[in-house]
Amino acid sequence: MHGNAVFNEHLELAAEVLRLLSDPTRMRIVLTLQRHGELSVNALAGAVGRKAPAVSQHLAKMRMARMVTTRQQGTHVLYRLIDEHALTLVQEAIHQAEHAVASGSTPPRHHEPVRD
Known about the structure:
mainly alpha; 61% helix; two-stranded antiparallel sheet; Arc Repressor Mutant, subunit A
């Protein structure tokens, strides 16, 4: 029974992670941090097309969920992804969305062969 309780706890936390990542701005933040490594709030705000205070609030939630971490550089705080898991979830959600909009005869872009 103990193992089932741990599994259920993980399910609850996993659902919370998915809820957190269900916001398009947070998904953009994840993708932007993956592309650029570390960025300040202002740089992220510019990259995702949102105002800095809103991005700061998103980052605070993502930091509490241990998706991002910070590093002080002079007077700036730089944000980066802690690991690849949030990115993987965002990429998989995008792949699922591609399936939802793909026509029956055309495979989604992520299923196309890689071209050299």
